[in-house]
Design brief:
The complex is a heterodimer of chains A (116) and B (111). By secondary structure, chain A is mainly β. Chain A is 0% helix and 51% strand. In chain A, strands 2, 4, 5, 6, 9, 10 and 11 form a seven-stranded mixed β-sheet that branches. The model of chain A has no long low-confidence stretch (mean pLDDT 96). Chain B is mainly beta. Chain B has no helices and eleven strands. Chain B is globular, with a radius of gyration of 13 Å. The mean pLDDT of chain B is 97. The chains are: A mainly beta (116), B mainly beta (111). The interface between A and B is medium-sized, with 23 and 23 residues.
């Protein structure tokens, strides 16, 4: 059974870059799409983007100018960088695995707070 | 950007049946939107219940089923249990999976 674990700073200053990593265990990176999804406190889910194991990516148009998602197949992890963050980027960030049209397996999520 | 709409809240009696729906601002939802359904309980990560309109995951209880109904994606719960009380989200894919959009969620109460 695949397991996904998010890691990274829980506090980021405004205007800086939020960086998270998702470590995949119990399965290979190959053959799947790897996604980041976030949820502001008390609100709904928002898709951020995904990376295919080959490295090709697709991003939410509303975040595209600030998002980079990358994959490292040798280390079995993938990463999220979100630049120029504001308080509106405060959320629980989830990594997930799935086919091209959605996600099947989820990480437990990590709360990132944007504050000075 | 498409908007995906769900009922904000629904209530079902224990043992009862309820249908949650997922609509799209761009027109009828079809199998080409590859609807997904997720269940989220307070303090937990979401759990995928349905993929590709109707397909269940190995962990999906048999009382949940997915379909298309009246131009929307639908999640039907037959024989509700108290443990089914949760927030339910749908996800639709647009423009060949280049854009995914979540619905706002339905808070389901079993009472």
């Amino acid at each position: 059974q695949v397991q996904l674990q998010e890691s990274g700073p829980g506090l980021v200053k405004p205007s800086e870059t939020l960086s998270l990593k998702c470590t995949v265990s119990g399965g290979s990176i190959s053959g799947y799409y790897w996604s980041w999804i976030r949820q502001p406190p008390g609100k709904g889910l928002e898709w951020i983007g995904y990376v295919y194991y080959s490295g090709s990516t697709n991003y939410n148009p509303s975040l595209k100018s600030r998002v980079t998602i990358s994959v490292d197949t040798s280390k079995n992890h993938f990463s999220l960088n979100l630049s120029s963050v504001t308080a509106a980027d405060t959320a629980v960030y989830y990594c997930a695995r799935g086919p091209i049209f959605g996600v099947v397996d989820w990480g437990q999520g990590t709360l990132v707070t944007v504050s000075s | 950007q498409a908007v995906v709409t769900q009922e904000p809240s629904l209530t079902v009696s224990p043992g009862g049946t309820v249908t949650l729906t997922c609509g799209s601002s761009t027109g009828p939802v079809t199998s080409g939107h590859y609807p997904y359904w997720f269940q989220q309980k307070p303090g937990q990560a979401p759990r995928t219940l349905i993929r590709d309109t109707t397909s269940k995951l190995s962990w999906t209880p048999a009382r949940f089923s997915g379909s298309l109904l009246g131009g929307k994606a639908a999640l039907t719960l037959s024989g509700a249990l108290p443990e089914d009380e949760a927030e339910y989200y749908c996800l639709l894919s647009y423009t060949g999976a280049r854009n995914w959009v979540f619905g706002g969620g339905t808070k389901l109460t079993v009472l």
